[in-house]
Amino acid sequence: MAASITSPTWIMAHQQTDGRGRRGRAWLTPKGNLTATLVFEPHCTPAQAAQRSFLAANALYNALAIYVPSEKLSLKWPNDVLLSGGKVAGILLESAGHHGAVSYLSIGIGVNLQTIPQGVKDAAFGPTSLKAAGGWDVDSIDFLTTLANAYADQEALLATHGFTRIRTDWLKHAAKLGEVITARTTLTEITGTFKTIDDDGNLVLITGAGPQVIPAADVYF
């Protein structure tokens, strides 16, 4: 649909039968949960497009905090939202472009609003749902309205203050900041103290061998 879209557009699925997350993992979507994708032309480089994962995470935090106490929420690098230690939401970015520019960016978001998915395998963090964790009983279309407004606010912050502001806000809610975590890449496993994310959104761990900058990995703690 991207070629026919002339302005930022949210697309919500009332039923999703073949959802997926990072690295092709299955994303299960029981009835009542949110599956939605924002499609737009970001007019930026691939590296700048990738930063939108943090905008989406901040927007999800702010949206969920309306329906559940914010102290129960945290952001797990690179693209998950935790609620009382369980995974309540995930983000997946995909893009298309040429000559070093991104023509279209899709930000896929899944949120467990009503139901905890069953049969999830090999998850670093077991799933939970907003309702199961004591949050409000909210309909998916109502939550999407809240999320869309929250995401628009993040784009306004990016345009006005740059990624530095997005990064600062994300770090305020980062899970296990300053604590020891493990990052597993496709080639190795690195354990160290979670110091920060850098200006490109890479994970920075302090290890016995010094600072390690990690662009992509699964995080465990």
Give the mean pLDDT: 93
Instruction: Decide which structural class fits the backbone.
Output: alpha+beta
Largest sheet: 6 strands, antiparallel
Radius of gyration: 17 Å
Q: What is the number of domains? A: 2
In the CATH hierarchy, what is the class of the largest domain?
Alpha Beta
Question: Could you please describe the fold and organization of this structure?
Answer:
This protein is an alpha+beta fold and 221 residues long. It has two domains: 2-172, BirA Bifunctional Protein, domain 2 (2-Layer Sandwich), CATH 3.30.930.10; 180-220, SH3 type barrels (Roll). Helices cover 23% and strands 32% of the residues. The chain contains four helices and eleven strands; from the N terminus they run E-E-H-H-E-E-E-E-H-H-E-E-E-E-E. It has helices at 46-50, 52-64, 140-161, 163-172; strands spanning 9-12, 34-40, 73-76, 80-83, 86-98, 101-111, 180-184, 189-197, 203-207, 210-214, 218-220. The protein has a six-stranded antiparallel beta sheet. Helix 2 (52-64) packs across helix 3 (140-161). The longest helix has 22 residues, at 140-161. The radius of gyration is 17 Å and the shape is globular. It starts with 8 loop residues before the first strand and ends with a strand. The mean pLDDT is 93.
